[in-house]
Amino acid sequence: MLELTARDSAMLNGELGEGAAFAMRIVAATAHVMNAQRLIDISSAHIDGCLYHGSVSLDFVERFLASGARVAVPTTLNVGSLDLIHPELYRGKADTACAAKRLMDAHIELGCEATFTCAPYQLKHRPRTGDQIAWAESNAIVFANSVLGARTSRYGDFLDLAAAITGRVPYAGLHVTENRAARIVLEAPDLTGSSRRDACFAALGFLLGLKAGATVAAITGLPADTTEDELKSLGAAAASSGSVALFHAVGITPEARTLDEALQGTEPEQTIIVSEADLVAIHRMWNKAPANEPLAAISLGTPHFSVDEFRTLAALFDRYDGPLRCDFYVNTSRFVLWQIEEEGLAQQLNARSVQIVVDTCTYITPVMKQISGLVMTNSGKWAHYAPANIGVTVAFGSMTECVRSAFEGKVCIDELVD
């Protein structure tokens, strides 16, 4: 039976307003489904529901607004359906754009921060190891749990906002220490000297999702200098191909100083040895486009590009003279955009015809001018979802290969050997 505090009961009984009561009913019902015996406080929330999927999305939020409800904890927002800083990029229906903007604005009226990013972990303030949070958005969930060591279950649309308004979540799932133990081990190949490291991390993550599903895995053998951006790419791909919400990178992530720590002293149920050939197979799966098909565009930044990735991209552009031979898009947050504007990177890339997109992403919003032909990416998540979402044919490569391809007007991928 679910034990409620006096404040929980007050919310549920409507003493703190109809909106809080509605939100608490959602949280309490979820707790019953998860067999949680109590609720716990959260220190922050991240909302996925500001992406417009139809009138029900807006109706839900406006019900809270009408009741006078507001979020009870610091709450960030995931991508919406529009780039509010560059609204001229939107190529969809005007009535959809109007409703999408209203949905984004309505969340701000509830007290959420106008972050509009799928990478809230790149913001100035981010959760610390052990913090209990309620984050939605699959890549943000896996990054928070794995790389930051914060604790969140997989929260989706509607439940995420209910948690933010009540400040409470069920004490179940990955909020509980015992449930965070790795049950399988994935032995990675040596990626240290790879010239395609970013592409390899994406492929490794995609393979992890296929093998693990929702099971927590410990990954051994990753390079000691593995970056947050590489872990971001790995986690996003794993959450796309499976339901991965937590992985442990042994010797790298905070709950995996050793393999035994990641396993919490138990024996793994399964050990999976990954070869370079396995990663090559994933790369080839993402590159089934017809030969000699023209390259329409490049799309990077799914999840959102970091400042470090922009620095790398600018350095790659410095290797080439002349114009781009296809459209080039980079998705990022307005927070990162402001930083790269201060460094002059945004202006430098804009001068080379790079279109920076904020607040949304090119695989969910009609902003790309040309999708007839191949669209190339270094993102496993983009490669997985874009064909169904926007009807493109995908080519996949490293960031280096994407830049080279953009200047040559055709897909240029280093020979894949297995």
Provide structural commentary:
- The protein has 418 residues and is α/β, with parallel strands linked by helices.
- It folds into 3 domains: 6-178, Aconitase, domain 3 (2-Layer Sandwich); 181-283, no CATH class; 287-408, 2-Layer Sandwich (Aconitase, domain 3), CATH 3.30.499.10.
- Helix content is 39%, strand content 14%.
- The chain contains 15 helices and 14 strands.
- The strands form 4 sheets. It has a 5-stranded parallel sheet with strand order 12-11-10-13-14, with helices on both faces.
- β13, α14 (380-390) and β14 (393-396) form a beta-alpha-beta unit.
- α2 packs across α3 (55-67), α5 packs across α8 and α7 packs across α10 (276-285).
- It starts with 5 loop residues before the first helix and ends in a 10-residue tail after the last helix.
- The mean pLDDT is 96.
Read across the widest sheet, the strand sequence of neighbours is: 12-11-10-13-14
Coarse structural class: alpha/beta
What's the CATH architecture of the largest domain?
2-Layer Sandwich
Shape: globular
The CATH class designation of the largest domain is Alpha Beta
Number of helices: 15
Unreliably modeled segments = none
State the separation between the terminal residues, measured CA to CA: 55 Å
Task: Please give the domain count.
Answer: 3
Largest sheet: 5 strands, parallel
Give the overall pLDDT as a whole number: 96
Q: If you compute it from the alpha carbons, what radius of gyration comes out, rounded to the nearest whole angstrom?
A: 22 Å
Helix content: 25-40%
Strand content: 5-15%
Give me the count of strands.
14
CATH third-level topology of the largest domain: Aconitase, domain 3
* Helix and strand run: HHEEHEHEHHEEHEHEHEHEHEHHEEHEH
The CATH homologous superfamily name of the largest domain equals: Aconitase, domain 3
